[in-house]
Amino acid sequence: MKTRKLLTTLLIAIVSMMAFSGCSTKQSAISDMQALAYDLRDNSAYYTISDWEKAASKFGKIRKEMTKHDYTPAERRQIGELEGQCARYMVQGIKNGAINGILGVGNEIRGILDALGIKY
After folding, report:
1. In contact, 116 and 85? CB cutoff 8 Å
2. Which of 4, 9, 30, 70 would you call most buried, defined as having the most Cβ atoms within 10 angstroms of its Cβ?
């Protein structure tokens, strides 16, 4: 009887952890996008070529992670605002010439902006 109760408790604990970790991953993607938006806001004026490459790569990875989850309309709005903030700083980088000469990252950022429907 004790073994059965222990197994039941363990099963409940495992299911609870799985449910919690799913929410955590969903929210962590939003948090990652927010952190990137803040980093771009605060530091993009000083970015090197390498920094722009990392930022573009991180943006793409976060967006890819977000496609794995279902978000509420309120969460989608928040994500859209964060993506818009990131895009704004990327556009400023393009306009300032910081990434114009870099074909790889420049084209990647342009592709991201095109996908978001943002004119630059």
Report:
1. no
2. 30
The pLDDT tens digits for 41-100 are 999 888 887 888 888 889 989 999 999 999 999 999 999 999 999 988 887 876 666 555
Residue 60, token pair as written in the block: 């793409």
CA distance 82 to 85: 5
Angle separating helix axes 103-116 and 49-66, nearest 10 degrees = 40
Are 62 and 33 contacting, i.e. CB atoms less than 8 angstroms apart?
yes
- Residue 104, Cα to own-chain centre: how many angstroms? 20
Task: Indicate the angle between helix axes 49-66 and 2-43, nearest 10 degrees.
Answer: 140
